[in-house]
What does this fold into?
Amino acid sequence: MTPSPRPATPSAPPATDVAPDAGYRHELYPYSGREEYLEGTVSFVREALESGEAVVVAVPDDKASMLREQIPDDGAVRYVDTTAVARHPGRLIDAWQAWITEYASQGRPVRGIGESPWNQVTSPAEAEELRYHEWLLNKAFAHGPAWWLLCPYDLAGPGAALEPMASCHPHIRAHGTTTPSTGYDPQAPFAFSSPTNPCDPYEEFAYTRGDLPALREKITACAQQNGLTGRRLSELHLAATEVATNSIRHGGGGGVLRTWRDDHRLVCEFRDTGHIADPLAGRTRPSSTQIGGRGLWLVHQLCDLVEIRSNPHQGTTIRLHTALSH
It folds into this structure.
């Protein structure tokens, strides 16, 4: 895909500035170039400081360096290290909840700037998961503390496309003015409903009760053929066991495993007839008193990328991606 030109903003029609929401406010900020990036983000931070709000900045290191030249980390503005989560969309909501809860517990209004490392995306699946994460943020904070998140998006970046991002954000910011995003889809966008077809060739194994040892053997064989061994293979085994066990318990008594290599990653896909009703399953940290529900959260911590697509008519598909470069 080619980058969307700056003048084309189908999701931001002329409108008056939007009044701040009572709860979570989620804005897309499309920009091109360093000057436009700083113009939008610095003004956003200064508006917050003038209103007595704190600001959490979660952006790639190069963008953080640019912002620090204009606005230092002084307590009211906090630059957080996103190294451990930036490339893991399934871990980002949990991270934002922790960052925002810290300020909310102090009774202080807070804003955030969150920019995903789009220039580091290496596969369509990773790009899709980052967009899906942006959409899920609206559900994750719908009933949480009131705060305001600005999401800068580089229109000159590789594979940039404005419309898919606009569908994930209720508002768009341009030239200091916020307008409703007419492209926003409050329901899960169709593009997120099912993953792409597996790469060919792939191995397939139908499993049911008592087949977990055989399932792990199938994964081991595929992994070793592609040079995946040691700790990373052990982590994949643990994640796969969690997903397959859920299939057996909640997905009709079993499922189908498919394994293949997708460029630099090993992919394990699990399909069953069950339905995961909560799209945030596995993306929020389980409480210490919670009974059950920890498996999918653990899977997100163990794998480099996790795709979960589920509906009551087609069942559930979960894909576990493990990088082969580790």
